Amino acid sequence: MADLLLGAALVVLVTVIAGLARVLRGPAVVDRIMAAQLLGTGGIAALLLAGVATAMPAFVDAALVLGLLAAFATVAMARAAPGRDDAP
Fold this sequence. Notes:
3 helices, elongated
């Protein structure tokens, strides 16, 4: 069972790497924001799968921290996006 969970974590990481290409290339700011959110969500999923597979609770703590960072990063990127009406 642990091998299956680690394999699933690897598949999730591959999709995260594919999403990283979208963050770097664009084409629009909205695409980059959504891909960055995918990186956070995929990273959380991979950490949780690896944590359950290896029975290491530290992975769950890291997933929680990554979840907070991903949420704050998404809000910061959305606020800095060009074309906002209430931009400073």
